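Re: beginner question about structure tokens

> Can someone show what the tokenized structure looks like for a real chain? I only ever see the sequence side.

Sure, here's an example I had lying around. Input first:
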Amino acid sequence: MPTFTEEFLLLALSDPQGGFVREPSQRFEHALAGAILMDLALLGRIDTDLDHLLLIDATPTGDPLLDELIALIRQSPDPRSTAYWIGEIRYRIDEFQEGLVGKLIERGMLKREEKKLLGLIPRKRYAVPRGPEALEVRERLRTTVTGGDIPDPRDVLLISLLVSCNLLDRLFNREEREKYRERIEQISPMDLIGQAVYKTILQEIIVPISY
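And the corresponding structure tokens:
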């Protein structure tokens, strides 16, 4: 089963153009940083409150990227906010992103293609094979929004991140987004890490987040 961050990347790359997100790219970087923290939370390594992100279990996960982040949090002399750690991951975002993309390519869940812009400038593009993992997460999230059941915590986290970086179009067309706006607004604020990502984006980016 893909990790939480891998599911987020598969959704982010479900784009005919093969890119990660539309501009501004900071939205995607913040959301990816939040997804990485969420993986640690789902593994029981960190917990959050309104003010701080706390390391509650420093046991290695076996994932080099996550274990590197655990080491960073452990080295901090004082508890820091979730927004602080989002910023620290963003500072290293190229390293984290390349590692995650490399893992997805190795497992056949992503394909890297290199095309030339105007026939001259090399440009990396990515294709998500129509495998069960990519389709399952998309349909699962659509059901979470369109149904009335209590959402799974993992799905709440993903929807929160998609809202934060304007990627709801990976799940719904314009008419559907308007139809389910109220349900999405109910679900997306349920998670503290997701809220921190959202607030950090609002502080740094003037362009409004829209549905």
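Each token stands for a local structural state, so reading them left to right follows the chain. The chain has one domain: 4-204.
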